[in-house]
Design brief:
Structural class of chain B: mainly alpha
Strand order of the largest sheet of chain B: 1-2
Number of strands of chain B: 4
Largest sheet of chain B: 2 strands, antiparallel
Distance between the termini of chain A: 14 Å
Distance between the termini of chain B: 90 Å
Number of helices of chain B: 8
Order of helices and strands of chain A: HHH
Shape of chain A: elongated
Oligomer: heterodimer
Number of helices of chain A: 3
């Protein structure tokens, strides 16, 4: 997988992944689990992981494949 | 009426471009209508865009502007940018406008709902910072558009793909973990505050890494004359 492919993949999945995360957190909230007021830092963590993946695009081939 | 190319054959259609009468063997079907041989569009243009080289669909990007666009006013973009999301919409970046509004809404919700774990003051300042970030971001994007530079749909003031140590993602993840631990009552901020000098140690380690890594770009502090 080339770097350009990897960068494109990360850019492509960024929006959907964040949307899924928001939906999951609200679903947990509505299901009676942890409220969104307590779980919102997960969004920051996911955003950081996505940024980290994106920054690996300029540094040679990626060892670990897709999760 | 007969075909102009073959006078002995009856015409079955007329060219859309020139009106020439055509028989069945002369007409060229393209773009859902009939053309003569001279005016038929090139078949390469009728086919769809070539398939992308990567198997993933990239998010839509704003069309790159090749020519300078004097109609774009950075000042107007700044003023509109004070309204949440409108500055990005002025620049044609609709998705980014939505993201800006969502981030602002999240910040206000966190502050007003008491979910910030006793850090309402910091989030209040973040809201103000975000307001002016949106305005300045719209200003800079408008300046890029004015001078004809290509603008990404999700462009930001900060360079996203740096070459050095990925500091911003690590800071984001660390902040997220800290707030999550606090919100889930695993480690409270009051207990963490006891260990704040660890932040100084981490900063020192990062600076050490930045100075010692060969070929690293000079730090943004502007000390271009660093002696080794």
């Amino acid at each position: 997988m080339t770097n350009a492919d990897w960068a494109t993949l990360v850019r492509a999945i960024r929006g959907p992944i964040l949307l899924i995360t928001v939906g999951t957190l609200f679903a947990i909230d509505h299901a009676g689990g942890y409220g969104f007021t307590r779980t919102w830092p997960v969004l920051i963590i996911v955003l950081g992981i996505l940024k980290l993946l994106e920054s690996t695009a300029g540094k040679g081939p990626v060892e670990g494949g897709l999760p | 009426m007969n075909c102009q190319n073959h006078p002995d054959l009856p015409a079955t259609a007329f060219c859309r471009a020139c009106g020439k009468a055509l028989c069945a063997s002369c007409q060229r079907n393209a773009l859902g209508t009939v053309y003569c041989q001279e005016h038929a569009p090139a078949p390469a243009q009728t086919t769809a865009a070539p398939p992308p080289e990567s198997p993933w669909t990239a998010p839509p990007t704003a069309p790159p502007l090749s020519a300078p666009n004097p109609g774009v006013s950075p000042g107007l973009a700044f003023i509109l940018g004070l309204i949440p999301g409108v500055g990005a919409i002025y620049n044609g970046q609709y998705a980014k406008g939505i993201i800006h509004v969502v981030v602002l809404g999240l910040l206000i919700s966190i502050t007003s709902s008491g979910a910030s774990g006793g850090m309402e003051a910091m989030f209040g300042l973040l809201i103000m910072l975000w307001f002016f970030y949106m305005a300045f971001e719209a200003y800079h994007t408008a300046k890029r558009r004015q001078s004809g530079l290509p603008v990404d749909e999700f462009s930001s003031i900060f360079p996203v793909r740096g070459q050095g140590f990925p500091a911003a993602p690590v800071v984001l993840i660390a902040l997220g973990v800290l707030f999550l631990l606090n919100n889930l009552d695993i480690i409270r901020f009051q207990h963490m505050a006891r260990y704040w000098p660890v932040a100084l140690i981490a900063l020192g380690v990062y600076l050490l890494y930045a100075r010692l890594s060969a070929g690293a770009p000079p730090s943004s502090g502007g000390n271009s004359h660093d002696q080794r």
